[in-house]
Amino acid sequence: MWGLVSSQVDNTRIALLEFDKPLANEVSAKEKRVDGFELKIDEACETFLALQNPFAADLRMVIAILKINYNLERIGDFANAISLLIEDLDEPVDEEIIARLRITEMFHTCSLMMRDASNAFIKEDGKLARSVFKMDKELNTINKNAVETICELIKEKPEKTRVLVEILSVVRRLERVGDHLTNIVEEIIFSLEAKKLTHAKFKKKISE
């Protein structure tokens, strides 16, 4: 699940920057796989809860995985939404627009957050999980400044108004990806507060 969602975000970045519509279409096509993974993980957790009746750390771990699973699926939704936007574009987005809105930087930060959140989960590293919060602040700052930048660009390039409005939605969605990643690390920290995670099979399933 984690690997699939990470690749969806990375492929969305490539599709946007290189105006690769076939790749954007591939991201859209794989959205059903993301949904399928979410369902399988939910079912595995529900079965574990029903059969094992876990307590304390085990229960916290399963609850955390359910919430992490949900947030990963939402990140996949945002990647899919951006890919659909790319498919509807008539031409590549100007490099200047990409640069001034710091979209490449946002994608890079999201990838780093995804990597560190995944590693924090696998290694049971609360300190690494907390490092993700700082990166989310960077996304929030870029998002906060985006409207002003868009207004400036519309004045300079009125013929690009439609594209600029659509690209603003990309910024918004990447900021939301960051929010969901912070939700994930909050769950990781929650699961580690009382005791180390113990059930490797669930960790392996969600990390795939």
From TrEMBL:
Signal peptide, first to last residue: none
Compartment(s) where it occurs, according to its Swiss-Prot or TrEMBL record: Cytoplasm
Span of domain PhoU: 2-83, 103-188
Gene3D superfamilies associated with the record: Phosphate transport system protein phou homolog 2, domain 2
Assembly and binders: Homodimer.
Function: Plays a role in the regulation of phosphate uptake.
Family: Belongs to the PhoU family.
Name of the featured protein: Phosphate-specific transport system accessory protein PhoU
Lineage: Bacteria, Pseudomonadati, Bacteroidota, Bacteroidia, Marinilabiliales
